[in-house]
Amino acid sequence: MHVMPLLLLVAGSAAVAAAGRRVPVPVPLLLVAVGLAVSYVPGVPEYTLDPHIVLPLLLPPLLYTAAADSSYLDLRAQARPVALLSVGYVLFATFVVGCAAYLIVPGLPLTAALVLGAVVAPPDAVAATAVARRVGLPSRITTILQGESLVNDATAITAFKVALAAAVGESATWAGGIAEFLIAAVGGVGVGLVLMVPLHWLRTHLTEALLQNTLSLLIPFAAYAVAEQVHASGVLAVVVVALYLGHRAWEVDFATRLQEEAVRKMVAFVLESAVFALIGLQLPVVLKGLGEYRGADAAWYALAVFLVVAAARFVWVYPATFLPRLSARVRAREDELSWKGPFVIAWAGMRGVVSLAIAFSVPLTVHGGEPFPERDLLLFLTFTTVIGTLVVQGVSLPPLIRLLKFPEHDVQAGTLAEANAQAQASRAAEQRLDELLADERNTLPGPLADRLRTVLERRRNAVWERLGQVNPVTGESVDDTYRRLSREMIGAEREVFVRLRDGRYIDDEMLRTLLRRLDLEEAAAYRETT
Predict the structure, then answer these.
(1) Which of 1, 35, 230, 518 could cysteine-pair with 277, CB 3.0–4.6 Å?
(2) How far apart are CA 323 and CA 290, in angstroms?
(3) DSSP tally for the chain: helices H, then strands E
(4) What is the mean pLDDT of residues 398-409?
């Protein structure tokens, strides 16, 4: 891909994603729709999805961001449903969709049909995270969907390799397939476990935030590449490293955390936007080689495969949810479940760019030089399944959640828990300050010591003030008023600094130093009240 088309893709998708935040249409769907429309605009270059770019260059940072923002403790608490979905469901869907495609499409070999099953089996990490973030699902359901999307790509890629080996004429057995899956899974987790401790040590011992964040950008690519080099799962290696580093992020310097959060959000925004736009832009590429299957037959095959994909998830999710509860031990450990949660989990099975990338990696020929059986049809069915799940399930999921009326998140209870935690931390900080000031080596002038106590008191009171206090004149909450006044004061200071620079009383270097100090003050004021 040349530089200009790449720049147009990134800039255009980012602009559409930014505009999509102001309309009721889900951003992923809007990006796909715009990509579909733009793909037929005269002069638009052909964006061919290269699996050698998508899998090693786009997937690792997106997985790393999703895993680092996930809760290791919550994922561990939901390990059983996550494993049943990310491993059990993917293998089940591979078999069911493969057998259905074999029966539906005349002349399609079973091995090629199983390749299709593996390709469309995994719900996409990017799609699941984007939708869960947008619709505000209950925390348990969000954890399960995010956990599934972090691991299922590894299962699907391994199943794809086994099915592909059989389809191209290589010797492949059930025992060999199981062995390859175990090697990939155990190897990927092993690589992650080996890398995570030294990487964390390196992050905590680098002295500059710039170097630490450069390392953070390289970590997902390095973990993926090392695992793939030893024929293990790069996906699992990235996830293991990211979960560990995210869990221990509090040990890193504050400047690193602030920069890393901003950088990760920016990278995720750009990549997610480009990924969904790329899905839509694939339509001309997919249709170009469809040949004899154009028309009613292709539409029927696409509809049938989509329905099988959607139905298979329901067939798996409900038994996998309720059958383990036949055990008294499971019932005692877990809260009572209704049918609503599994229904949302079953319906939130959007496919995405990973399925398309895997499909494009299907070789053109098999052993002996013969064309791969119905390769173009497999690409078309993958494309229509991805589009179908994004359109049908992506659009209907938010109103479905509103219709099911899940219990709303108790904001006041969460704020109360935050206030209690802050109170305990403030008591510990105050005690530590008293101990330090009692040491003659830490003598401070009275005003500075009072300032430390004032800042601590303000931080402690800020959370309690969010428990419902509203300004009767402006209608603002106390924290909104505090933030507004703080910004007005800081804005007045900025104007003075700029005026002094323009009058040559201070130089630009000093201006930047002073403005950075104000930026940190404004960030502190904002974070204390949010």
Answers:
(1) 35
(2) 43
(3) 25, 0
(4) 78
